[in-house]
Amino acid sequence: MTVVGVTVIPTMVQKYQSPVRVYKHPFELVMAAYERRFPTCHLIPMFVASDVVDEENSEDGSTQKIERRCALDVDAPRLLKRIAGVDYVYFSQKNTLNRKERTLHIESHNETFSNRVIIHETCCYSVHPENEDWTCFEQTASLDIKSFFGFESTVEKIAMKQYASSIKKGKEIIEFYLKELEDEGITQVPRWTPSSLPLPLPRPTRLDTSPPVLPELAVTPAVSIPLPTDAKDSSSQDTKQDNSALQADSLTDILAGTPEDKLDADYIKRYLGDLTPLQESCLIRLRKWLQETHKGKIPKDEHILRFLRARDFNMDKAREILCQSLTWRKQHQVDYLLETWTSPQVLQDYYTGGWHHHDRDGRPLYILRLGQMDTKGLVRALGEESLLRHVLSINEEGLRRCEENTKVFGRPISCWTCLVDLEGLNMRHLWRPGVKALLRIIEVVEANYPETLGRLLILRAPRVFPVLWTLVSPFIDENTRKKFLIYAGNDYQGPGGLVDYIDKEIIPDFLGGECMCEVPEGGLVPKSMYRTAEELENEDVRLWTETIYQSASVFKGAPHEVLIEIIDASSVITWDFDMCKGDVVFNIYHSKRAPQPPRKEALGAHGITSPGGNNVQLIDKSWTLGQDYSMVESPLTCKEGESVQGSHITRWPGFYILQWKFYNMAACSATNLPRVDDVLATLQVSSHKCKVMYYTEVLGSEDFRGSMTSLESSHSGFSQLSAATTSSSQSQSSSMISR
């Protein structure tokens, strides 16, 4: 950005917040170890020297203020040092020791390049609130690079890298000097009393004045060490293992708590894993922001960490998606899903998935026999809402199992392993509405349960799998896709297969193992369990606002019609519908002009009171077939209970009308003698009403072959007219009917 001819470089600010690090030593002993870092420290090569420039003690000796000037030899490229024209970076450090309150406050800032770079750091040593013989340490810092000769980004990377390294080294330094004191026989330093004299301090030699260097975050003498902070009773170093066990018990309930809570370094390592100092900082800062801005309890630390990992610890991006997820969870009461959701019997019988022990890493193991699952039957019997809720309950249960396994195995376990068996997968699994429902479920899970899948083992992948993978993979996060391992045929039984990830003793019997698996075997969902759109719309809680299927009523003299506008010729109109009640004739028409606004037929005129029925008519009674509109496919008679899938490649742009018309036996019969089945069907249709559930979609022709092959069938009611009116390259239609 340029203002009045002057180039202004955007400010880059980096912040750091440490967890609470605990020393299992009294405050006075830690202070004695801390003072041994001056005037220089051989454990920090870049810390060249320090000089006391001012010192002030209170009359009673309880308070001591020391100001030091420290020099750092920053590890930076020679070219950058030459451009900067410095050899050392100088910092000013002010320490305030209060022996009475047992606190040490440290504040430091850079003197070198202070008009270009602002570095500010504060540290605090204090007594542990639950054990007066332990010492806590906290640290915050900020780096604000306003300008630096065009090397702002380089300077920022160097600064953050070296600062992170110095933080990790801080633990070793304090521990080194505590051990040195112990070797000298100093294991206790008396506390200050009103009659005490000030403790002697080592006097550093005067530092030679040398030109300063490249800016860098200060490596202040303040350091940090991750150790446990829990028990009040024992503080002996010989009981560290016992204290860790006590901590494991006391920190089991890791629901986020009150704003006064602070994260302890050992707790992070035990329950969340090994994080870099900057990753710890991101977690603490985001957690603190949530405590300040969200009323009530905030998410568990593991959950916050998942969102940070999903966005590579970018605070702003992680905060955005986390807040969206929190709003979603609150809106749909997802926190109470495990308590309130009861799996319907059809899911218990036909949903071929379930939890099964754990993998070699201690992760909960979920098995899904996708090839044995009737996806269409489940969608039709339950609807997308119930399926989504079931999948969410699986994810909620997975989170709970991760917490349990973290306690059982004594190490952080934040994700689970999923084993998917594809034996039996075929083209029926590529049923378009089912795939669409799957994609929407994946979208919800990806947005609200990031970084919960540790590994996905896909076994016995058939030839049709690449088609399904092409449809699904674009909706899966790249980091998640990297966790997929795919085995074709029996490859999973060889080296590098299943036994590398799952103990042989728990390999399911259907995969050649000896362990009985309680996952249902699946099968086709009986059509008697299918429900209408009206029934599915009566769910108490809707987790998304739209549904794949729409419901319509067809009456004698009142067909139901759907308008589809086609801009590009050779587009593909696809449909899938089920005859819930009665028989209809299905037609497709084309018109160059748009029909009049649709008129809805009043249900009351037909004696129907159901609020869920929908009947729309588009073709005006004044229109003439062959002049105002034309039939592009021959009629298809559809009987009650049939499922019809089909597609039509359009030849012309314009307006296409899909019509479901009441089946008139006398008009449609080819002979004057009706069939017995037709007469019986007519007698079963009450009030001359038919019900249909349908789904339509328009695809580009280039997307049709790979994604819609499930709609192709050798049985077609449209092939004759298509062959007569269009060439094979211009128009193609197919339908599949299952009874």
From TrEMBL:
Pfam family, one: PRELI
Domain named CRAL-TRIO: residues: 343-519
GOLD domain residues: 545-698
One GO process term, biological-process aspect: negative regulation of RIG-I signaling pathway
Domain called PRELI/MSF1: residue spans: 14-186
Signal peptide residues on this chain, from the entry's feature table: none
PROSITE patterns linked to this entry: CRAL_TRIO, GOLD, PRELI_MSF1
Annotated GO MF terms: RIG-I binding
Stretches the record annotates as Disordered: 226-245
SMART domains: CRAL_TRIO_N (SM01100), SEC14 (SM00516)
Gene3D superfamilies, alphabetized: CRAL-TRIO lipid binding domain (3.40.525.10), GOLD domain (2.60.120.680)
Composition-biased stretches (Basic and acidic residues): 230-241
Gene Ontology cellular component terms for the protein in this record: cytosol
PANTHER family on file: SEC14 RELATED PROTEIN, SEC14-LIKE PROTEIN 1
Protein name according to UniProt: SEC14 like lipid binding 1
Species whose genome carries this gene: Sparus aurata
Taxonomic placement: Eukaryota, Metazoa, Chordata, Craniata, Vertebrata
Gene responsible for this protein: SEC14L1
